Amino acid sequence: MTINTISGLFGGTSPFTALQQHMQAVLSCAREMPPFIEAVIAQDQTLVEEIKERVFTTENDADLIKNGLRGHLPKSLFMPVDRRDLLAVLTTQDSIADVAQDIAGLFIERPMPVPEPMQPLLRTLTQRCVDVCEHYGKIVEELDELVEMGFRGREADQVEQMLSELNHIEDETDDQGIELTQILHRNEEGMNPVSVILWRQVIEWIGDLADNAEKSGDRLRLLIAR
Fold first, then answer.
1. What is the phi/psi pair of residue 188, to 5°?
2. Average pLDDT of 115-128?
3. Where does the pLDDT of residue 7 fall: very low under 50, low under 70, confident under 90, or very high at 90 and above?
């Protein structure tokens, strides 16, 4: 991403433009996770490394937008929202990309086979966590219209409904993460103890994709309420 492109994000009057652009970069990272897990399951280390490079590049793009937004937001400005609330949303949604980078990096540092009993639910959990991120991304795209309506009216009601649905979907991923961890422990005999520990970490990180999207939604709810 060039400096001119980044600067262009801040030419308008709404700080939400850059927030939306940032979320698009974050989503690009999250969307790599299902094919990444497929490559891990297939033990295709060449593809694992290719996807890892894409994740790292896009995460860097997200960081450039994040830092640009932080640097261009005035300390005091007649904005429709509090500057601190906006930055809190930005930081939390950025953590989605950070987690995707952590997952991708781990399998470069230590390639690990996926125990066969874990594979179906690992696929399901990963995709469902990305679904939560996608849902949050749709909410972020509604912000321009929400600002125009003064955070009130039908648009605000629709966003609140979407936020409630976000919480519901994230609850599903919590249950799937617990079930996948149980499958791991039922099959840990004969596994390398370090691999068992790392798989627990991977399952937690995959769940964090959805958890951070939910936290971003909660911060967005507070921003809108104020």
1. -80, -15
2. 97
3. very low
Rounded distance between C-alpha atoms, residue 141 and residue 158, angstroms: 12
Say how many domains are in the chain: 1
Of 138, 48, 58, nearest to 97 (Cα)? Answer: 58
The answer on pLDDT for 164 being more than 60 is yes
- 167: domain CATH number is 1.20.58.220
Tokens of 188: 């840990």
Answer whether residue 4 is part of any domain.
no
Nearest to 226 by CA among 90, 86, 76: 86
Structural domain boundaries, residue 169: 11-225
The predicted model scores a pTM of 0.88
- pLDDT category of residue 69 using cuts at 50, 70 and 90: confident
φ and ψ of 2, to 5 deg: -85, 160
Flag whether 66 is in a domain. Answer: yes
Round to whole Å and give the CA distance between 63 and 55: 12
- For the stretch 25-43, pLDDT in tens is 999 999 999 999 999 999 9
Q: Is residue 100 part of a domain?
A: yes
DSSP letter at 111?
-
- 133's CB contacts (< 8 A; 6+ apart) are 26, 27, 30, 96, 209, 210, 213
